[in-house]
């Protein structure tokens, strides 16, 4: 009898649509590998979710993104139900979701980040918290949601325009010139380094990450065309972050590479995604394919390595 896998998707976060795309793609890939797959669109009705997970499946493939699916909440429920699940556990998920906390933890492994500060959204309109240009992003959101770059000459629109709540915590960091790099980690090894080139003069925001529109979507350069020393450093830093945060399964860490000054430049860690995208345009499947691992094989590996923390 084939193993039964429930794929959790959708959810309540700002990334619901992307999660649905990830979930459907992963479900199809797992069926191709012979798994008995059920797709579950997660809502706020926990009783309905528990019922959908009864009888217990052999594993849960967590394709949720953002809050409640990536921050330890759904992981806690699966721990209570004692159902093995893909990706990181409760603590690693919660740590990685809090960008400032993640930077603090990862620093213990010698990984360098931009020096930032946390402020309330209501305070942002009063004065610049640091010299421009700087980056502002929610402390506890995923996937480039709500990220803004404040540059010289920019007006600061009301907070309501950004969609931030007055008491919401925001992380403010100096803008690092240069290039965007990302590295996937699978188990105990880094896969590859991709350079992400946003279209035109933009930056790697939510639309650039997930759009299929060639006028908006970012270009992925794999392998990244950077000095070998920087490539190796990014590979090592991603694995160090994965281990320091206590991640398991698959994660993806993002970096800025400042090559605008003296060679070979400097690498800065930004964040780790414990539930990276699994759509047709996603970076983890792309890096896996680069190493000869098909999308169905990647999904099957994640299921075979599903676990509970306790």
Strand numbers in spatial order across the main sheet: 10-9-8-11-12
User: How confident overall, as mean pLDDT?
Assistant: 90
Beta-strand content bin:
15-25%
The CATH architecture designation of the largest domain is 2-Layer Sandwich
Largest sheet: 5 strands, antiparallel
Dominant shape = globular
Number of strands: 12
Helical fraction equals 25-40%
Low-confidence stretches: none
What's the domain count?
Answer: 3
Task: Name the CATH superfamily classification of the largest domain.
Answer: ATP-grasp fold, B domain
Helix and strand composition category: alpha+beta
Overall CATH class of the largest domain? Alpha Beta
CATH fold name of the largest domain:
D-amino Acid Aminotransferase, Chain A, domain 1
**SSE order, as H and E?**
EHEHEHHHEHEEHEEEHEHEEHH
Using only C-alpha atoms, the radius of gyration works out to 19 Å
Structural notes for this entry:
This protein is α+β, with helices and mostly antiparallel strands and 310 residues long. It has 3 domains: 84 residues, Rossmann fold (3-Layer(aba) Sandwich), CATH 3.40.50; 118 residues, 2-Layer Sandwich (D-amino Acid Aminotransferase, Chain A, domain 1), CATH 3.30.470; 58 residues, Dna Ligase, domain 1. It is 32% helix and 24% strand. It has 11 helices and 12 strands. It has a 5-stranded antiparallel β-sheet with strand order 10-9-8-11-12. Strand 1, helix 1 and strand 2 form a beta-alpha-beta unit. It is globular and about 60 Å long. The two termini are 27 Å apart.
């Amino acid at each position: 009898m084939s193993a039964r896998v429930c794929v959790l998707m959708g959810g309540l976060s700002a990334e619901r649509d992307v999660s649905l795309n990830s979930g459907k793609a992963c479900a199809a890939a797992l069926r191709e590998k012979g798994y008995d797959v059920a797709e579950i669109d997660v809502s706020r009705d926990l009783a309905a979710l528990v019922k959908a997970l009864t009888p217990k499946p052999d594993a849960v493939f967590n394709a949720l993104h953002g809050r409640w699916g990536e921050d330890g909440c759904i992981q806690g429920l699966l721990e209570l139900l004692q159902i093995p699940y893909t990706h990181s556990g409760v603590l690693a998920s919660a740590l990685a979701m809090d960008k400032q906390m993640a930077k603090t933890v990862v620093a213990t492994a010698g990984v360098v980040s931009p020096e930032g500060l946390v402020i309330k959204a209501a305070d942002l309109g009063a004065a610049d918290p640091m010299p421009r240009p700087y980056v502002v992003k929610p402390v506890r959101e995923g996937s480039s949601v709500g990220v803004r770059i404040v540059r010289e000459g920019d007006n600061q629109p009301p907070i309501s325009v950004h969609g931030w709540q007055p008491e919401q915590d925001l992380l403010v960091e100096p803008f690092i010139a240069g290039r965007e790099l990302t590295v996937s980690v699978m188990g105990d090894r880094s896969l590859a380094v991709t350079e992400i080139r946003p279209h035109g003069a933009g930056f790697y925001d939510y639309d650039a990450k997930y759009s299929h529109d060639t006028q908006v979507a970012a270009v992925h350069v794999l392998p990244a065309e950077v000095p070998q020393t920087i490539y190796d450093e990014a590979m090592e830093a991603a694995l160090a972050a994965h281990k320091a945060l206590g991640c398991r399964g698959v994660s993806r860490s993002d970096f800025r590479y400042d090559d605008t000054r003296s060679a070979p430049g400097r690498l800065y860690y930004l964040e780790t995604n414990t539930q990276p995208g699994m759509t047709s345009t996603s970076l983890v499947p792309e890096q896996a394919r680069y190493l000869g691992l098909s999308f169905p094989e990647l999904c099957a590996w994640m299921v075979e390595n599903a676990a509970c923390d306790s």
